[in-house]
Q: What sequence folds into this?
């Protein structure tokens, strides 16, 4: 919770304190008359002091920072400079939904495939599977996500005839909700595949080393001595222990997934948070930029908290420590 | 096999560093990485001489120059501005490598400084630093980089600073925990005690040891920075005045190269990034392998089919003939007969023999003590007879007969059925031998059900609880996890687990070492009582002669992987025949005669890789003579069904003296 508050404050000052004064950039325009500019500045609250208001007769908290906090509490993130009538919160809601459509399936597919191949590679150490898995992971690590996306885009568009950008076929009209959904899925295939591959490469390595660690633990020897079959040892004794570090990593790695998602969205013009961020940068649309950054940061922090809870649930040693 | 004794002297950093370079050069991945990286660096340095054109020059663009496919004039074609792609590619290496190296140095500097201070100082300052670190760690890096570069403007300096100053968090945490553990090591506390300043200690004692970590991370950081720079450039946040691979891709993507099918405009820069990052990843893997040599193998690897073929089958047949099948008047058949057991471990420097030519019998209801100093092959021998050796260990000769069954050649499924029902083991160090994330009772019940599927889950749970109760653990605690148990309780639980399938033989590997004296006695009594009641035979591995005197019928003394002496307990104590047995007895306090002087055995047991040519005990033996140094003594059969491997017992030697 504290972290989220720090993120909010950090986000505010990031956009006000740094040189370049982005808060003014959206309002300032040499063609504008000083009066219009002043009016605009007042409308965006830019005439008030930044942090605490020490002016006589004014409330101490009548400042940009506290107004920002108050607005934030009401879900008000300001208005986009770029689309002057659209509230940022509305843009964010739509974009977040689209990003989740992309990230969640990719994360599930990537982690599951990575865990599976990592397990197989560790189990059959020094076999063809193992060398293959390590080579694939190494290659995927070295491929920048956007470049992988470009390659898939070229291949997918050329050989498979899949749509290469956007969320829906432009101008198409659908007879049923089902057709609209099919169109959405067709648009999702390439970006999801890109992101899933990147995540997959990461988890092959992590799972492989985690499983190798667990397989050399003494309790695996005990299980073997007890006469369990190898498969049963893996299922009952190794898998859960090997997954433990993964849970923390899934959370720690959320930043990495976000980075992948931003690049994927740019390559495939997928209208999510990443594309919104990048277009906002191009248009110097700071309220939107501030909003996307805040949302991304808060989601990642929240995911970290969730992972901590999940870890406590999976590992009895931790949950007891929390109860005590 | 070897005991690592923490020395009071700091490990020498120079050897670490020199070993690192040599180690990397010995690995194919390391060499490949270095060559690939070297080529790229050379390309960047000599760019003006190699590149066919100057990409920073802007000649007038003719329409027919745009997106020219590769030709003799332009080996990689031209881009949307009619410029030579190859020249841009060569120059682009400069930006990528510059950003990579400088940002990595920044990250390394900041990360190690914060980690060192937080770890070495601790306290409020350390806490605050770590909280800041954790905060920066959770903020998604690329999002923050985009925002910062967007606000500050995309110049090369900004990009380097932003990448470098955001990438240090993970390293700071690692360095901190490393420093924390080093701070309490003996050579550091000692340096502090003699008045060394903090700066001196950090420079001379801590930094050299953190160094390998930094080396490994520098490689990772360079590749991360290169990837991040190219990503920023790709989404339009590259330095507008410079050519980089990311920017080439950005132009290709935004200016229609992809749809125009101009693969030469975006494949080369993309592959260049892959090339550099791959070279660094290969290098990093080689370094990582050197720094963290993990267990080469694990317990679940498949048995190699060729392994048991080395075993001398003739010997097995011999053992079968030698052991009488029973019948009237025959000597009682041993429940377990070990003959000529020899075990070797694979190492990078070739196989090392850990157990050589070990033979002994275990009879029904007997307790045999397996005695010797640490590292003399006791545990290895016991794991070998149950085929539980780690994969690098294997039996190279000998036979193990269990009630007439040749254990070493049982097929895998029969071996599984054999385990725990015929022979079970109480492992040394019960903390690690129990699975930390499963309740203790469940682990006992599992053993019961695996071997008898007719038993319902509930019944198995109930039996597990009964067993736990029997070893003095309340049935209620069956549902609890191992970490809630005390050391003594865990050892009891381990015994309950071993009893689960009522095996004929229990191997107990130093079941009492980690426990205090009172608990030790309780556990031994428990074990002895239960095995007697359930008519089990026991092999007790220990280096505690008091325990042996208390519970063992027969004693096998091992030294350097070989049998030293084997005899019934009484005669062994009263009349030891091997000098090593004598030395062991003299080193052990005897409650009966407290005035007797204790004699420590000088020296240490031989390491596996430095086994003496003759008798392994000769270097420490007070009676050693010339023959002991060159010839290995065989086992001499002595009166009273005992044996010892010492030339002093050779009838020829006895006569000649």
A:
């Amino acid at each position: 919770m504290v972290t989220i508050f720090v993120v909010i404050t950090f986000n505010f000052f990031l956009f006000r304190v740094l040189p370049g004064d982005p808060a003014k950039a959206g309002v300032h325009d040499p063609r504008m008359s000083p009066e219009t500019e002043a009016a605009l500045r007042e409308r965006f609250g830019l005439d008030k002091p930044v942090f605490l208001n020490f002016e006589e007769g004014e409330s101490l908290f009548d400042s940009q920072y506290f107004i920002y906090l108050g607005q934030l509490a009401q879900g008000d993130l300001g208005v986009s400079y770029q689309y002057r009538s659209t509230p940022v919160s509305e843009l964010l809601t739509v974009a977040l939904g689209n990003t989740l459509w992309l990230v969640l399936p990719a994360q599930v597919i990537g982690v599951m495939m990575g865990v599976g191949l990592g397990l197989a590679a560790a189990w059959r150490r020094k076999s063809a599977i193992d060398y293959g898995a390590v080579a694939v992971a190494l290659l995927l690590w070295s491929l920048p996500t956007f470049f992988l996306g470009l390659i898939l885009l070229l291949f997918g568009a050329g050989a498979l005839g899949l749509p290469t950008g956007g969320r829906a076929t432009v101008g198409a009209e659908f007879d049923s909700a089902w057709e609209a959904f099919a169109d959405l899925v067709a648009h999702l295939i390439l970006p999801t595949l890109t992101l899933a591959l990147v995540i997959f490469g990461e988890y092959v390595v992590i799972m492989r080393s985690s499983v190798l660690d667990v397989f050399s633990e003494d309790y695996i020897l005990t299980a073997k001595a007890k006469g369990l079959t190898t498969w049963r040892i893996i299922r009952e004794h190794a898998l859960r222990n090997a997954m433990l570090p993964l849970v923390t990593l899934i959370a720690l790695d959320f930043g990495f997934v976000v980075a992948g998602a931003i690049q994927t969205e740019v390559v495939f013009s997928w209208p999510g948070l990443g594309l919104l961020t990048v277009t906002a940068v191009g248009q110097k649309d700071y309220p939107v930029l501030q909003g996307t950054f805040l949302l991304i940061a808060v989601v990642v922090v929240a995911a970290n908290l969730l992972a901590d809870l999940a870890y406590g649930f999976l590992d009895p040693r931790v949950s007891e420590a929390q109860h005590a | 096999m070897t005991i690592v004794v923490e020395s009071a002297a700091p490990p020498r950093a120079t050897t670490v560093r020199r070993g690192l370079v040599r180690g990397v050069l010995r690995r194919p991945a390391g060499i490949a990485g270095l060559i690939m990286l070297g080529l790229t660096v050379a390309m960047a340095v000599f760019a003006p001489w190699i590149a066919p054109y100057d990409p920073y020059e802007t000649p007038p663009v003719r329409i027919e120059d745009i997106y020219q496919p590769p030709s003799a004039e332009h080996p990689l074609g031209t881009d949307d501005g009619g410029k030579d792609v190859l020249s841009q590619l060569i120059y682009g290496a400069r930006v990528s490598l510059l950003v990579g190296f400088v940002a990595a140095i920044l990250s390394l500097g900041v990360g190690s400084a914060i980690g060192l201070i937080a770890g070495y100082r601790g306290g409020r300052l350390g806490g605050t630093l770590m909280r800041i670190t954790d905060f920066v760690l959770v903020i998604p890096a690329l999002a923050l980089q985009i925002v910062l570069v967007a606000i500050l403007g995309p110049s090369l300096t900004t990009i380097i600073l932003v990448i470098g100053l955001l990438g240090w968090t993970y390293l700071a945490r690692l360095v901190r925990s490393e420093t924390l553990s080093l701070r309490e090591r003996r050579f550091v506390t000692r340096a502090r005690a003699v008045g060394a300043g903090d700066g001196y200690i950090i420079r001379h004692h801590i930094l050299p040891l953190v160094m390998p970590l930094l080396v490994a991370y520098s490689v990772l950081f360079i590749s991360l920075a290169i990837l991040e720079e190219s990503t920023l450039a790709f989404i339009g946040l590259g330095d507008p005045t410079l050519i980089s691979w990311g920017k080439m891709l950005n132009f290709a993507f935004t200016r229609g190269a992809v749809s125009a099918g101009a693969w030469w405009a975006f494949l080369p820069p993309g592959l260049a990034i892959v090339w550099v990052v791959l070279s660094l990843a290969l290098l990093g893997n080689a370094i990582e392998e050197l720094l963290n040599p993990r267990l080469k193998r694990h317990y679940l690897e498949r048995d190699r089919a060729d392994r048991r073929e080395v075993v001398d089958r003739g010997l097995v047949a011999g053992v079968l003939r030698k052991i009488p099948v029973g019948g009237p008047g025959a000597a009682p058949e041993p429940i377990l007969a070990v003959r000529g057991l020899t075990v070797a471990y694979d190492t990078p420097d070739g196989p090392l023999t850990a157990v050589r030519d070990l033979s002994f019998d275990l009879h029904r209801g007997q307790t045999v003590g397996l005695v010797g100093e640490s590292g003399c092959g006791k545990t290895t021998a016991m794991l070998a007879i149950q085929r539980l050796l780690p994969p690098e260990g294997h039996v190279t000769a000998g036979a193990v007969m269990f009630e007439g069954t040749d254990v070493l050649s049982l097929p895998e499924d029969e071996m599984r059925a054999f385990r725990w029902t015929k022979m079970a083991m109480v492992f040394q160090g019960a903390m690690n031998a129990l699975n930390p994330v499963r309740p203790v009772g469940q682990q006992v019940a599992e053993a019961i059900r695996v071997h008898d599927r007719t038993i319902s889950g509930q019944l198995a749970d109930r039996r597990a609880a009964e067993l736990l109760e029997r070893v003095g653990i309340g049935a209620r605690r069956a549902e609890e996890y191992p970490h809630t148990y005390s050391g003594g309780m865990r050892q009891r639980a381990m015994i309950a687990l071993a009893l689960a399938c009522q095996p004929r033989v229990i191997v107990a590997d130093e079941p009492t070492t980690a426990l205090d004296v009172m608990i030790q006695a309780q556990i031994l009594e428990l074990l002895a009582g239960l095995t007697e009641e359930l008519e089990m035979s026991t092999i007790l591995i220990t280096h505690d002669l008091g325990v042996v005197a208390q519970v063992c019928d027969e004693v096998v003394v091992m030294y350097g992987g070989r049998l030293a002496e084997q005899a019934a307990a009484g005669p062994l104590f009263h009349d030891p025949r091997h000098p090593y047995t004598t030395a062991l007895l003299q080193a052990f306090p005897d409650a009966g005669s407290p005035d007797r002087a204790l004699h420590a055995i000088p020296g240490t047991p031989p390491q596996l890789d430095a086994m003496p040519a003759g008798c392994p005990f000769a270097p420490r033996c007070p009676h050693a003579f010339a023959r002991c140094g060159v010839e290995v003594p065989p086992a001499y059969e002595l009166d009273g069904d005992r044996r010892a491997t010492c030339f002093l017992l050779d009838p020829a030697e006895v006569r000649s003296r």
Notes: Confidence is low (pLDDT under 50) at residues 1-14, 305-310, 323-330 of chain B.
